[in-house]
Amino acid sequence: MGKLIGFYRRLKIKDKLFVFILLIMAVSFLFVYSGVQYAFHVYDEQIYRKSSDVLRMSSKSIEDELKKIEEMSYEIMADEQIQAHLQHVQDHDSAYTQYKMKRDLWDKLGEYAGEEAYIESIHLYDKNGTEYAAGSSSADLGEKQKNAVFEKAKAKKGANLWLALGDSQPLLISARQIRSYHQLSLENLGMIVIQVNLKQIIHDLPKDWGDSVGDIAIADQQSIVYSENSSALMKDIKNHIPALPGYEIKKENGKRYFISSLPSSYQNWSYYNVLPFDDMFAKITFMKTVLGIFFLLFFSIVLLLGRRIANSITGPIEQLVSAMKAVQSGGLEAGASLALPEDTQDEAGMLNRHFTMMMKRINELIEENVEKQLIIKETECKALQAQINPHFLYNTLESINWLAKANQQKQISKMVESLGYLLRNSINMKKDTVTIEEEAEIVLHYMTIQRFRFEERLNFTLDIDEEVKHCLIPKLSLQPLMENAIQYALEPFTRPCAIRLRAKLEAGHVVLTVEDNGPGMDNRILEKTGGRGIGLQNIHDRIRLTFGGQYGLTIQSGEGKGTTILIKIPCQRGMA
Fold it and tell me: Which intervals hold domain HAMP (predicted)?
């Protein structure tokens, strides 16, 4: 680094200007590139939000349909006719009676199967293993799958079980153990299994992406519940998105995909939407290339022009350097003139005309600078001394606070903390205005001290609307009003006093109200108020000076009616 600095210092001014132009262009390129990347990132975020919204609405639609089917499985389980038939399945009735019961079960299942468009089939198994099926697709489960479903459904003890079977095209089923509710015996009567056409549910979802409709996949914690696409990307999708919710751009078989993900509390499922990135961002990619080529051409042109501009600027300066060498040998004092072209009327010409005056002023400026430095050092020393007393007081209060905490004196500790906060804010006058939220914090600390003083006699309420918390107000405007209320509404009497501070937005202005239920004030007290030297007139004047003559403080009071002080200020928002 030192060698580079030395090399730069040895360069001529024109070369330094050229290097400086290079640096400006490089930094500009970084800023432009960063801005473009940020803009594209924001666009990606917009795409993600759009995809997330679509995915959220799709997942809600899917889950609404599945909840309907779940409710139907409960209705089937609780159906009185089905319960009665399954209860007497082993009774030794005639063959005709048995046939009629089975016929009734098939008809009943057929009625339920026709109620929902997305049910492919309903399978009912009695406790003997006999199957009753209905629906458009009555394909039976394999023995291995059936046993796995029965075991998991029994573990749910009558609750609904959603299960995906298969690998390439998973089959979504709803299974529930049928238990007798007769005299609450909860006897096992059989099993109900509903096959759901999840593909049709997803196919009927509204398409909000035009021609670029993405693939939707559903996965639980162990496997893929549903996938429209059998590609490796969809099969291994859970490994592509490690965190939910979010989005990521992945490449598969030479193509990029925009994958957004969304968790769901229903069955602990995760929803994924996969969109073809290259198709969606083709125009954006083209614009990136055009911007890159344009900037490279612009960079080359600036370099050529920069070299010529640097030479034109440094030419007169180099001639002035030659003249200054003559001055170094005493030529100026001898009456020698600076040998610059007569047509030089720019800054170099001004240097030519003012060089002699500059030399005469150098010594005077040096002496003045030394004197100013001495004054600055003395001022800094006094400023440090002025900080000793507040810092000493803060440290003393902090020591008292820790001593109170060590002795389990919580009230003393709280009062010391509040006193330190009030002292720090009263001394710190770096800014004239603070937010209403910050001013309310000062009031809370002040009222904390007063609560320990007056105990249950003081009932203080703070009500500040969220929309005005960050509006600005002159510092130390509210605490004197609290002190005024305590002095005239609470101190002279022994009964409890309610003091309320409210802040809200009315007609574009902030209105702050301090109310008490004291005896009220007469005109003499209104003109001469408390606040330990900080009167209501002082607050009124500071508000008018800060915000204008149309703002300020007004008082509403009457004998035996309490006092209300209103402050009206504009809603000028500060930093959150």
Answer: 311-367
Cβ contacts of 462 within 8 Å, gap of 6 or more: 440, 443, 444, 500, 501
Q: Kind and range of the H or E element at 9?
A: helix 2-10
The per-residue DSSP string of 400-458 comes to: HHHHHHHTT-HHHHHHHHHHHHHHHHHH--S-SEEEHHHHHHHHHHHHHHHHHHHGGGE
Domain ranges for the chain: 10-280, 456-570
Beta strands in 86-187, from DSSP E residues, in sequence order: 119-126, 131-134, 161-165, 171-179
Cβ atoms within 10 A of the Cβ of 251, count? 11
The residue to which tokens 């299960």 are assigned: 163
**CATH topology (fold) of 456-570:** Heat Shock Protein 90 (3.30.565)
Phi first, then psi: give them for residue 198, nearest 5 degrees.
-65, -30
Instruction: Give the span between the Cα atoms of 300 and 295, in whole angstroms.
Output: 9
- Looking from the CA of 350 toward its CB, the CA atoms found within 13 Å total 2
Q: Is 138 helix (H, G, I), strand (E, B) or coil?
A: coil
Q: Which of 196, 141, 150, 197 is nearest to 176 (CA)?
A: 150
For residue 512, the cross-strand partners are 503, 567
Torsion-angle region of 255 (φ positive above 0: left; ψ -120 to 50: alpha; else: beta): beta
pLDDT digits 0-9 by tens, 123-163: 888 887 788 888 776 556 777 778 888 888 888 888 888 88
* Higher-scoring residue by pLDDT: 416, 538: 538
Bond preceding residue 341 cis, omega within 30 of 0: no
Cβ within 8 Å of residue 380, ≥6 positions away: none
Written as six digits, the tokens of 542 are 């500071």
User: Of 178, 129, 177, 125, nearest to 152 (Cα)?
Assistant: 177
**Is residue 334 predicted with pLDDT exceeding 50?**
no
What per-residue confidence (pLDDT) applies to 326? 61
Place of tokens 């709280």: 414
Alpha-carbon radius of gyration of the chain: 42
Report residue 375 CA to chain centroid gap: 49
Helices (H), 114-244: 143-156, 198-203, 232-235
Long-range contacts of 423-426 (CB under 8 A, 24+ apart): 423/390, 423/393, 423/394, 423/397, 424/394, 425/475, 425/476, 426/476
Question: What architecture is the 10-280 domain classified under in CATH?
Answer: 2-Layer Sandwich (3.30)
Looking at beta carbons, which pairs linking 359-362 to residues 24 or more positions away fall under 8 Å? 359/327, 359/332
